[in-house]
Design a protein that fits this description.
By secondary structure, the protein is of the alpha/beta class. The chain folds into two domains: 154 residues, Alpha/beta knot (3-Layer(aba) Sandwich); 63 residues, Trp Operon Repressor, Chain A, CATH 1.10.1270. 28% of the residues lie in helices and 17% in strands. The longest helix has 19 residues. Bound molecules: the ligand N#Cc1c(-c2ccc3ccn(Cc4cccnc4)c3c2)n[nH]c1N. Ligand JEB binds next to strand 5 and strand 7. The site of the ligand N#Cc1c(-c2ccc3ccn(Cc4cccnc4)c3c2)n[nH]c1N has 20 residues, from strand 5 and strand 7.
Length: 244
């Protein structure tokens, strides 16, 4: 998979060279290229922003550099998917991560200021698939942090990136896990600061362990994310529970 990221702060994407994503890049599972948007400017000051039409605070990113960048990175006829990070985008979730993991090419546009001129997305959509995406209901200063999150989320789903693919199956939000949150996990020592590992996990009884883990996942999901519960697990009674 080829991933291109365009930003005025390309160094912000340096952490992608670390850990699992970095290894996937080294082994060629992912071909990552990070570009400086200013390379597509032509004035002495390498200007990427201007004042907003209609007034208002802040500056807007000019369309010309973005248009030229996308022309160069996505030649006519290329099958590519453009992600534009924006607080007003569709919520990024595990389903979209899985879709992206299967794409041959993904280009990620990281805006700054008050955002990118809306015509960039409009024009790009005439020749590639475009998704305006948000990683959550809070406001960042730009798209780079969101790009790091999204790339990590889909890269780990690419076959060969994670050593043990079985570990993906039981994770929170994974389709195989009925969208339940992940059960609590424990490791040695069995007793730590007066706190014991749940006895069932030491029993070696795999049936009981599986059942216990599902119960904990349902309990946690009901408490923290009831909207994720499958209908079969929903209960309407008011339950007084610890806030943890
Ligand atoms: N994905 C995502 C995001 C962003 C985000 C993404 C790109 C840009 C480009 C500029 N800003 C600052 C900005 C501030 C206020 C209004 N509009 C824009 C961005 C914020 N914020 N929160 C998210 N979940």
């Amino acid at each position: 998979m080829r991933v291109d990221v365009v930003s005025i702060f390309p160094d912000y994407l340096a952490p992608l060279r670390l850990s699992l994503v970095g290894k996937a890049i080294e082994t060629g599972l992912i071909d990552l290229a990070v570009h400086d948007l200013r390379d597509w400017t032509h004035d002495r000051h390498r200007t990427v922003d201007d004042t907003p039409y209609g007034g208002g605070a802040g500056m807007v990113m000019r369309p010309e550099p973005w248009g030229e960048a996308l022309d160069d990175l996505v030649p006519a006829g290329t099958d590519a998917r453009l992600l534009i990070m924006t607080p007003s985008g569709r919520p990024f979730d595990q389903r979209l991560a899985a879709e992206l993991a299967a794409e041959p090419r993904v280009i990620i546009a990281c805006g700054r200021y008050e955002g990118i001129d809306a015509r960039v997305a409009e024009h790009a959509a005439t020749r590639m698939r475009v998704d305006e995406v948000s990683i959550g209901d809070y406001v960042l200063n730009g798209g780079e942090a969101a790009a790091l999150v999204i790339i990590e989320a889909f890269a780990r789903l690419i076959p060969g990136v994670i050593g043990n693919p079985e570990s993906l199956a039981e994770e929170s939000h994974s389709a195989d896990h009925d969208q339940l949150l992940e059960y609590p996990v424990y490791t040695k020592p069995a007793a730590w600061r007066g706190l014991e590992v749940p006895e069932v996990l030491l029993s070696g009884h795999h049936g009981r362990i599986t059942a216990w883990r599902h119960e904990r996942a349902v309990e946690l999901t009901r408490r923290r994310r009831p909207e994720l519960l499958p209908d079969a697990e929903r209960t309407d009674e008011l339950e007084v529970r610890p806030a943890v």
